[in-house]
Amino acid sequence: MKCRVCSGRIVIELRQHNAAFCAEHFMAFCRRQVERAIDKFSMFEPGDRVLVAVSGGKDSLALWDILVELGYAADGLVIGLGIDDYSEQSTAFARDFADQRGLTLHYHSLQDEHGFTVPSAAEATKRVPCSSCGLSKRHIFDSVALDHGYDVVVTGHNLDDEAAVLFGNVSRWQRDYLARQHPVLPAANGFPRKAKPLVRLGEREMAAYCVLNNIDYVVDECPMAAGNKHLEYKDLLNTMEVASPGAKHAFYFGFLDRAAELFSAAVEAKSGRPDENISPCVVCGSPSTNEVCSFCKLVELASRPVPVEIDTRRDMLDG
Ligand code: AMP
Ligand code: FES
Ligand code: ZN
Ligand code: ZN
Fold it and tell me: Using CA positions, which residue lies closest to atom 3 of ligand 2?
C-alpha cells in the first residue's frame, strides 16, 4: 500500500477511510479533520481566543498542537486533580509541551485553590471519584475561561470517547443526556462556549500523531477510572469496528445527523425555557440553578478537615 496523496511509504493505514498515508500527509489529514469539525459545527472563528483543556494525555496535547499549527490563538489549562503520581505526571507532560513551544499554560490546583483532591472528595461524598472530578473540571474550565476572557473552551474528546458515551446513553435511553450530546455547546446563561474539535479522529490516530511529532504524553489511564463503564463500551465498539470499519463514525455521526435534534426538542418542550431558573451562585458567582452551585457545595463538603479520633479513655487517664 502507498500513500493516497504522494504514493510514498506509508506510516498508517486507516481502514475506515479506505486510505493510507505517509507521515507528512497523515499530519495534513489530521489537521483537515479538525478544520472540518470546526467549520461544520461552527465551533469558533480564526480571531477567537481558545482555551485548550489539557490533561497531559495524547488527545488534548495533539489537539493543542494541531490548533497552533492551524494558526489559532490557543492557550492551555491543566488542572491539578491531586490523584497522586498520575496527576503529577499529567501536569509535567503538559508543562513540558508548553515550555518546548513557548505556549501559555494556566495551572489550577484543586488542593491549593479549594482545599481538596479528587480522592478526598470521593471519600467525603461517598461517590465514585469520576463524579466530583467531572464536576470540578467543568466548573474550573468555565471559571478560568470567563476570568481570562476566552471565547471557547475545547477538550480532547475524540470519536472513540463520544461514541462510547453515546452508546452508554442509548443503552439506557437517557434522553436528557442525549439532548446535550453535541460537539459544540453554545455560550449560554453565563457559561462559555464548549467544543470538541477531535470528534472526527479516533484514539489510534491521536496516538500516531503524537508519536510522529515527538509529543510525550501520559500513557496510563487514570487509576481512579478502573471499572468505568465507558472503557467497556470502547472495547465493544472496537470489536464492531474491526468487523465493519467505519462503524463508530456511522454510529456517532448518524446520531448527530438524524436523531440528536429529536431529543433536544423533546427535552426543551418538557422543561420550558432552558435558562429560566439560572442565577449567580451566592458563593462564587457562577451561573447556577440553585442558590449555591454544586461545585461550592462540593468544596464545602470535601474541604472540611478530616475528623481526628480522640481516645477519650486515655484523656481521662492522663488527666
Ligand atoms: P477525560 O475526562 O479524562 O477523558 O478527559 C477528557 C478531556 O478533558 C481531555 O481530553 C482534556 O481536554 C480534558 N481534561 C481531562 N483532565 C484534565 C485536567 N486534569 N486538566 C485539564 N483538562 C483536562
Ligand atoms: Fe477524573 Fe480520573 S481523571 S477520576
Ligand atoms: Zn504522502
Ligand atoms: Zn459556586
Answer: 222
In angstroms, rounded to a whole number, what is the distance separating the alpha carbons of residues 129 and 297? 16
E strand spans, 25-114: 49-53, 73-80, 105-109
Give domain status of residue 236, yes or no.
yes
Mean pLDDT value of segment 83-102: 97
Report pLDDT for 190: 83
Q: Looking at the predicted structure, is the pLDDT value of residue 291 above 50?
A: yes
CA-wise closest residue to 198 among 190, 189, 207, 186: 207
Ligand closest to the CA atom of residue 1: 3
Give the ligand 1 atom nearest the CA of 198.
10
Q: Whose CA is nearest to atom 9 of ligand 1?
A: 156
* 33 touches ligand 1 (CB under 6 Å): no
Domain that includes residue 203, residue range: 39-263
Check whether 272 has a pLDDT greater than 60.
no
Is ligand 1 within 6 A of the CB of residue 110?
no
Nearest CA to ligand 1 atom 15: 55
Number of domains in the chain: 1
pTM: 0.92
For the CA of 130, the nearest atom of ligand 2: 4
Exposure of 166 by Cβ count < 10 A (0-12 exposed, 13-18 middle, 19+ buried)? buried
Q: Does residue 22 lie in a domain region? A: no
Confidence of residue 262 (pLDDT cuts 50, 70, 90): very high
Task: Name 237's Cβ contacts closer than 8 Å, sequence gap at least 6.
Answer: 160, 163, 164, 167, 247, 248, 251
Q: Which residues line ligand 2 (CB under 6 A)?
A: 81, 118, 129-130, 133, 222, 224-225
- Ion ligand 3 nearby residues (CB, 5 A): 3, 5-6, 8, 22, 25
Residue 305 lies inside a defined structural domain of this protein: no
Q: Which CATH number belongs to the domain containing residue 166 in this structure?
A: 3.40.50.620
Any atom of ligand 1 within 6 Å of the Cβ of 120: no
**Residue 84 included in any domain:** yes
